[in-house]
Design goal:
The chain has 130 residues and is of the alpha+beta class. It is built from four helices and six strands; from the N terminus they run H-H-E-E-H-E-E-E-E-H. The chain is globular.
Length: 130
């Protein structure tokens, strides 16, 4: 069984390699991802996979850089900076650069992710891609 730190290290490795399947494999079968800014929750492997693949399509060069990690029992909070470019919707538009601070809160049990909560500023994101 992976330690909390090993699990989170693998999580960001999968995210930064854009390997949705490997990232989803770190979740429990009924794992959830809560996108706080968008007010959406995805639960279960299929929904998590679809959401992450869609995100990687929207930001094909996205990377997360961890800035700080705080552990409290079965939860770990990670302060990160996400950078990349939002793909244009039309072929004649330019990709928009994004640099966004955020916070992931992981709930972990038995070496698996039960839930991730992702917090970031929607208004700041929209201003950067306007």
């Amino acid at each position: 069984m992976l330690s909390h730190d090993q699990l989170i290290d693998q999580f960001y490795d999968c995210y930064n390699r854009h390997d949705a399947s490997a990232a989803i494999a770190l979740y429990a079968s009924d794992g959830r991802h809560v996108e706080m800014a968008m007010g959406k929750t995805r639960a279960g492997a299929d929904a998590l996979q679809a959401g992450l693949e869609g995100f990687f399509k929207m930001m094909p060069d996205v990377v997360w850089r961890e800035r700080e990690r705080v552990r409290s029992a079965g939860r770990v909070a990670v302060v990160y900076t996400m950078t990349g470019h939002v793909a244009p919707r039309s072929s004649d538009a330019a990709a928009k650069p994004v640099a966004l601070p955020g916070l992931h809160v992981f709930t972990i049990e038995n070496g698996q992710i039960i839930e991730t909560q992702d917090l970031w500023d929607k208004a700041e994101f929209l201003a950067q891609i306007a």
